[in-house]
Amino acid sequence: MSEQERVWFNPFLPGFFDDPYPHYKQLATEHPVQDHPLGFWLLTRYDDVLALLRAGQSVEIRNMSGQQQDPAAVLNASMLDRDPPDHPRLRALVTKVFTRRAISALEPRITELVDGALDKMAERGSSDLVEQLAFPLPFAVISEMLGLPQIDNARIRDLSGTLVQSLEVVADEETARAIGDAAAELQALTRDLVAWKRANPADDLLTALIAAEHEGQVLNEDELVSQVVLLYVAGHETTVNLIANGTLALLRNPDQFALLRQQPDLTANAVEEFLRYDSPVQQTRRIMISPYEVGGFEIPRGAFVVACLAAANRDEKVFGPDADKLRLDRKEARHHLSFGGGPHHCLGAALARLEGQIAIGRMVQRFPDLAVDGEIELNNRINLRGLNKLPVKVHATV
Ligand code: HEM
């Protein structure tokens, strides 16, 4: 194939945001290791993506644009962007308080929040699922877990929404400046919050993080602020899209909706399939600190590599010839890479799963006639793929 005929990754192709998967498939088939003319490498095959994620020790994580002086520098000190020895130390400290037990203890509260949102949807008949359920649920859960005072929430929510644009291709200077400003403000607000919490300790995650000690070490102030910002942002900017993308996938596949109603014990596997089928995080990135061999190519030291989790999740070698279909009873669903893999595997996976299972599970059982009711609005993001609006209507409720 000549250079001219080659298919390059191009999120600006018509229809990409509606359905990026045919493009990913073509890349994975024809050009799975791509040395992109815009200066990054792209991996789209499952085995290659997983190997890169597991090669944690030979890979430097840096903020998503790959720049040292990124405006979103507040995330640089978070574990997501650190290598050993900092990464295991930071992760161990946060893991100490963000335990499986702490997460399972949230089940009754998550159920209460979900049922409250479903009650409102039932009362209204027509509503926006993102506004009523998909956004407020993870937002309330992480805010309550951290013990944030109510008054700060609205502003922090706006800032977080701006900051996560650093995970996308930042196209213009104005956006880059807005991200920088949001990062600085979020950092300052979080610093104040930590000071307030030190003076007003309570039974919450932030108080526990302040006190957390591992092998005689605690988090210093900058590290504490960065981990809190990461938990906060990661805690709700992703799970919203699990709930919204999952619900949309169900509504577009009525046979699967019916299957889940008949077999509620499929809910846990269904959530794995939603994550696989339309991943809320489509890519992750690494900067190589040594040459790296993959698929017959040698990626040089210093290269910026994009691992396409969403493409890997549709790999027929792993998920079978019907990998492009939504199948809630798919046995291999849980092998998806939507939570990453290796040393940086998502620390909040158990929480995201629990929220997804309760939200979608209870909604499907309660609203047998859930249906789309108006124009769906995509968020048009390449990485944190999701919906701004999912108008739905319900009649029958039980
Ligand atoms: C890391 C996805 C929810 C906290 C990651 C990574 C992915 C991911 C792909 C790895 C990034 C990389 O390797 O570069 C998701 C998805 C979620 C979700 C799809 C929801 C459906 C959450 C929640 C929390 C959270 C609810 C916490 C409240 C974290 C943290 C890391 C992380 C702290 C960094 C781990 C490390 O660097 O060691 N997540 N996440 N995530 N996630 Fe999540």
UniProtKB/TrEMBL annotation:
Gene3D superfamilies on file: Cytochrome P450
PROSITE patterns per UniProt: CYTOCHROME_P450
Coiled coil: none
Superkingdom as given in the UniProt entry: Bacteria
Keyword Metal-binding: yes
Keyword annotations from UniProtKB, A to Z: Heme, Iron, Metal-binding, Monooxygenase, Oxidoreductase
Keyword Ubl conjugation: no
Pfam families, A to Z: p450
Family: Belongs to the cytochrome P450 family.
Protein name: Cytochrome P450
